[in-house]
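Recap from last week: sequence in, structure out.
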Amino acid sequence: MKANQATYPVRVMCRLLGVSVSGLYAWRERVPSARQLADVALSVKIHTIHRRSRETYGAPRVHAELAQEHGCRVGRKRVARLMRAAGLQGVRRNRFVRTTVRDPKAAPALDLVERNFQAAGPDRLWVSDITYIPTWSGFLYLAIVLDAWSRRVVGWAMETHLRTELVLAALNMAWRQRRPGGVIHHSDRGTQYTSIAFGLRCRETGITPSMGSTGDAYDNAMAESFFATLETELLARRRFQSQAEARMATFEWLEGWYNPHRRHSALGYLSPIHYERRMSLQHAA
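Predicted structure tokens:
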């Protein structure tokens, strides 16, 4: 009504909308309730969290951050209601294309995981896989090594090819950072992982290889889930003109967002780095 007051009389607009003039003025002068004021303050915090999450968080993760970082003990349904009112929502996962090609002549390692990705502690089980990142100047390929216990990406590499050097670089980064003793490295049966060079490197570092079947997402479900998150939160929302731009954006997402800040429901809505720190402090105590 206020926007049209200069064009139409208030009485005419009230009659068309079926409200009384006195009721309109009473509504305008009404003092907001304590609940309404609290909702306004809470909405500001929700907007801030959603923006910092790169507009990827839905109500569960926003609710967790309100409690853990802001000390706001409010119901998840209230958060969801305020997000709907503000037009805020989390991103939804998309399907992505696999890059696995099996070498029929290679002898794969046994499947030591058998779809059980529960790990009792850090560096007991690593999962690994490869995906592609499209750019206007050709594909960029990303290989990752993920710690199943904390969901932390402990090793990664990017190249313009799918040769064995790609997965070796990711494995070497993980080994240099963590220096594990007796870790199982689980992957699919892609040619890079069944190669002689990869097997020799695992033997040199004391890493035990494990391989699921080729093309079955459930056999490497944790790595698949990670790439689905990457696709949803970064790749589906950006178009890269060059491979250099894609490298920088992926690096920033991995090390600037995912490892230190991205919350996981399986970790009590902590990020991988915060989860490792909390578990380390509890163990020390």
